[in-house]
């Protein structure tokens, strides 16, 4: 079945102060292939937004664009605006490393450094000039508590992070990202490699984190999107066709493609 990519239902927010980040006419090319077609989306502060859609729909490409993770990929070009605190972070003169302190990223598979748990958290902080041992200790404890990992590792902070379970490693990666005190946390299928119990723990962690962070997550898991997100955006063939409150997307979608996808009758 084919779907009309011009049939769209996208919400917008009334108050600018409610928006953590938004994109205008964002396009991504891989060589001559336009992978993302002029996406306009706004992300509300202190909410979880899920990006869903079939494989190859562009949701991960779009997510990675939000903090310039597509930079450096040969043949890739990103145009349009990515607006954060009234600054277009897609401009070439932007300090990408400084920007990523504010817009953090957690990847699909846990990728802890082959260092201690403590050093995983403090590595980037030290590189940015933080040398105060007391402050570093405080950030390590706070970050691990926010990632719901402190009680499990507090007596083993100087042991290798690689000895942790997969779920613990992923929560360590979340702690590592939030140690930089970002405003926005991007997650690309963070639970896809985890067992159901670890997935539940990560989901609970994210729900608790939204009190302090704006979270944007790519997921293939419809139940996960329905459980933890406040808003959901449906991607198809590089377009965002529908964006609304999650409860509306899963109960009263306006677009036929969205309805088919969330009900399992897509294709």
TrEMBL record:
Keywords: ATP-binding, Cell membrane, Membrane, Nucleotide-binding, Phosphate transport, Translocase, Transport. CDD domains: ABC_PstB_phosphate_transporter. It comes from Enterococcus diestrammenae. This is Phosphate import ATP-binding protein PstB 2. GO terms for molecular function: ATP binding. SMART domains: AAA. Residues 21-262 form the ABC transporter domain. It comes from the Bacteria. The lineage of its organism: Bacteria, Bacillati, Bacillota, Bacilli, Lactobacillales. PROSITE patterns: ABC_TRANSPORTER_1 (PS00211), ABC_TRANSPORTER_2 (PS50893).
């Amino acid at each position: 079945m084919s779907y009309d990519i011009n049939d769209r239902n996208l919400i917008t927010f009334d108050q600018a102060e409610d928006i953590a980040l938004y994109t205008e006419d964002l396009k991504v090319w891989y060589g001559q292939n336009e992978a993302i077609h002029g996406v306009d989306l706004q992300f509300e502060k202190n909410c979880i937004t899920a990006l869903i859609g079939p494989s190859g729909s562009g949701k991960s490409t779009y997510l990675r664009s939000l903090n310039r993770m597509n930079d450096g990929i040969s043949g890739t070009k990103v145009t349009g605006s990515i607006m954060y605190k009234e600054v277009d972070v897609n401009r070439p003169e932007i300090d990408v490393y400084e920007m990523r302190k504010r817009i953090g990223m957690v990847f699909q598979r846990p990728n802890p450094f082959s260092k201690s748990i403590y050093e995983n958290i403090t590595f980037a902080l030290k590189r940015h000039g933080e040398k105060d041992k007391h402050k570093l200790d405080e950030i390590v404890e706070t970050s691990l508590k926010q990632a719901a990992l402190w009680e499990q590792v507090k007596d083993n902070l100087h042991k290798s992070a690689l000895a942790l379970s997969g779920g613990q490693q992923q929560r360590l990666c979340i702690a590592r990202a939030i140690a930089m005190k970002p405003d926005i946390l991007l997650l690309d299928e963070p639970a896809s490699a985890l067992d159901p119990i670890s997935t539940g723990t990560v989901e609970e962690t994210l729900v608790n984190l939204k009190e302090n962070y704006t979270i944007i997550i790519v997921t293939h898991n419809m139940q996960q999107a329905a459980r933890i997100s406040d808003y959901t955006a449906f991607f198809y063939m590089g377009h965002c066709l529908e964006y609304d409150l999650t409860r509306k997307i899963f109960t009263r979608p306006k677009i036929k493609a969205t309805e088919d996808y969330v009900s399992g009758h897509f294709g």
